[in-house]
Amino acid sequence: MAVSVQLRGVTKRFGETVAVAQVDLKIERGEFFFLLGPSGCGKTTLLRVVAGFYEPEEGEIYFDDRPMHGVPPHRRNTGMVFQNYALWPHMTVYENVEYGLALRKVPPAERKRRVMEALETVQMERYADRTPNQLSGGQQQRVALARAIVIEPDVLLLDEPLSNLDARLRDEMRQELRRIHQQTGLTALYVTHDQREALSLATRMAIMRDGRIAQIGTPREVYTEPTSAFVATFIGDTNLLSGRVLNRDGGGLTVETEVGTVFVSRARNFQVGDRVLLSVRPEALHLAAEKQGRPNEFPARVLGTTYLGSLEEYELAVNDALRVTALLYNPGRTVYAPDQNVFLSFDPADVVPLVWEASD
Ligand code: ATP
Questions:
Q1: Are the beta carbons of 83 and 159 closer than 8 angstroms?
Q2: Which residues line ligand 1 (CB under 6 A)?
Q3: Across the chain, what does the average pLDDT equal?
Q4: What is the Cα gyration radius of the chain?
Q5: Predicted local confidence at residue 279, as pLDDT
C-alpha cells in the first residue's frame, strides 16, 4: 500500500561534509516525486536516508504516521532500483524477481502469480527463463523494476535508473515508467540529474543545492516560476539580465538593466532600489527584422545560429551589451543571418524577477 513520506529537519553528515542539511519534505501517497540537482548536492544521500541505509544525525522520517527511526532497511518495505540494475547474474529473470518474495516467505503458489504479474507489468514475461547476461540494458532495467514492485513496496526508490541506457531507450523507458506508476499507484521517489526525465514524469520535484532544498513544486511551477537564479538556470536554459528596480506599481516593476529599461509584470517582493536578476527563457524571445513597437524591444545583432530541426537557436548581442540566446520554432519561414541587425522583444509577463546573486 502506498504511504506518504515525511522528512522533518533531516540532516546527514559524513565527517565535515554536510550531505543533507535540515530538509523538510512531504511526499503524498501515490506521488511520483523527483529529487534533482547538480552532482554532489545530496540527492542519493537523501534517498538512502529514506531507504534506511543511513541514519540521519538530526531529524525524523515518517511513512504515514510511523516513525522510521531505528527501523532497518529490510523492515521499511521499500523497493529499490539502481542505475546498474544490480541483478543476480547466476539467477534467471524469474528467480531474480521471486527472490524478495522467497525472503518474505510468501507461499509458492502466490509467489508464482505475483512474479508473473510483475513481469507482465514490465512486459518481460517472455524472458522469464533467461539470465541477465542474455538481456539488453533496457530489459535488465525492466527486470530490476519488476523485482522492486513485486514485493508491493510502501515506497519505490529509484536512483538514476535510466542513466545507463541510450537516448532512445531512455525515452521509451520514460513512457513505461509513467504507465507503470499509473498502473501501480505507488509512492515513488526518483533521483536524477536529468531534467527531461523530471519535467516529463514528476508530479512534483525538489531542486537541491548543497544539501538543501532550493525549491519544491510541480514541473510547470518550477520552470515558469523559479524562485532563484540557481533554479532558473538549472531547470532549462535562461537568459539573465542584471538591473535595479526603478519603479514598482500595479503589481509590476520597471527595471533599469544593462540593455535598457525592462518592464516586468510580476513584482514579487521587490522594492524600488533593489538589485535584481531578470530571467527570460530563450523561447520567450521574439525576433523581427523591423521595429514592432512592442514593450521590452531592443536592437540586437545576430552572432550565430544553430539549426536544430524543429527549432533554430540564435546567439545575439543586445545593444552590444549582453549576449542572449533565443529559441525560435518553425525555422525556415524566417531565418536571420549572422551579422544581421534585428529587433528582439519579450513580453513583460515572461520576465521573472529574482534575487540578485553573483554568478559562480
Ligand atoms: P551525484 O549526482 O553525483 O550522484 P548526489 O547529489 O547524489 O551526487 P551525494 O552522493 O548524496 O550527492 O553526495 C552528497 C555529498 O556527500 C557529496 O559531497 C559527497 O562527496 C558526500 N558523500 C556522499 N556519500 C559519502 C560517504 N559515504 N562518505 C563520505 N562522503 C560522502
A1: yes
A2: 14, 17, 19, 37, 39-45, 193
A3: 92
A4: 25
A5: 97
User: In order of start, what are the domains of the chain with their CATH numbers?
Assistant: 5-230 (3.40.50.300), 238-355 (2.40.50.140)
Quote the CA–CA distance of 44 and 47 in Å, as a whole number.
5
Check: CB of residue 138 under 8 Å from CB of residue 169: yes
Instruction: Tell me the C-alpha distance between 93 and 188, whole Å.
Output: 23
Residue keyed to cell 516586468: 264
Model pTM? 0.90
Work out the pLDDT band at 334, boundaries 50, 70, 90.
low
Helix (H, G, I), strand (E, B) or coil at 348: helix
- Give me the pLDDT at residue 202, please: 96
State yes or no: pLDDT of 157 exceeds 90: yes
pLDDT for 343 equals 96
Cα-to-centroid distance, 133 and ligand 1 (Å): 30
For residue 211, the ligand 1 atom closest to its alpha carbon is 14
Q: Any idea how long the chain is?
A: 360
> Which amino acid appears at position 351 of this protein?
V
Cα 253 from Cα 238, distance rounded (Å): 20
Instruction: For residue range 41-51, list pLDDT tens digits in order.
Output: 999 999 999 99
